[in-house]
Amino acid sequence: MRNPVLLLLFLSGISLSVAHAEVYRWVDATGRVVYGDNPPKKSGAKAVDLPTLTIADGYAPKVTAPEPAVTSSPAPAEAAPASEVPPEAAEEATAYSEFKITSPTADETVRSNTGSVDVSVALTPSLKSGDGIVWYVDSKQAGSGVTPTVTLNDLTVGTHRVFAVLNDAAGNIIQNTETITFNMLRQTALPKR
C-alpha cells in the first residue's frame, strides 16, 4: 500500500456505513419473510425500526490497594537467646541443604524394553517426619512417597523430563529439584528384508 492513511479512511468509511445500515423486511416470491439490508426492487420492502442495543458494563471487581504492612524487627535486647528457641521451630527453620536428582543424569540415554527407569534423589538431611516427595514426568504427576527412589514404568520411546517436589505434611511445597531431561530407548524388532 502506498498510502496507509487512505486505506484507514476507506476501511473506517465502510465500517460506519455497515454500522448504520438500514434493515428491511419483505416477502419473497415463495412467501417467506426475508430480512436484509439490500431488498430487491418492487418487493414492497419496509424499513424495520430496530430497538437500540443494550450495552452493559463488564464485571470489574473492586480493587482496593492493600494497606502497607508495618514490619518491625525486635530490638537486640528483645531477641530470645538461642537456648530459649523451641527445638520444633529450629527444625522447621532448617531447610534441606541438598535436594537433587542423581539418577538418571542429564541427557542420559536409558535402554529399557519395558519402558522403566529408576529415578533417585539425593536428600540432605534425610526426609523429616510428615514430609514427602512427589514425582513428575513430562509435567504430569507420576507418583509420591517417602522414599528417595521411585521406578517409573511404561515410558514411551523418546525424550522425557523428570523432576521432584518436596512437600510438608500440609501439602505445601518446600523445595523443587531441577528438571532432568533423559532419553528412553526400547529395542524394536524390525522386519527382515
Automatic annotation (TrEMBL):
Q: Which ranges carry the DUF4124 domain?
A: 12-82
**Keyword terms, alphabetized:** Signal
Highest taxon, organism lineage: Bacteria
Signal peptide position in this chain?
A: 1-21
Q: State a single Pfam family of this protein.
A: DUF4124
- Spell out the residue ranges making up region: Disordered: 65-89
Q: What is this protein called?
A: DUF4124 domain-containing protein
Which species expresses this protein natively? Thiothrix unzii
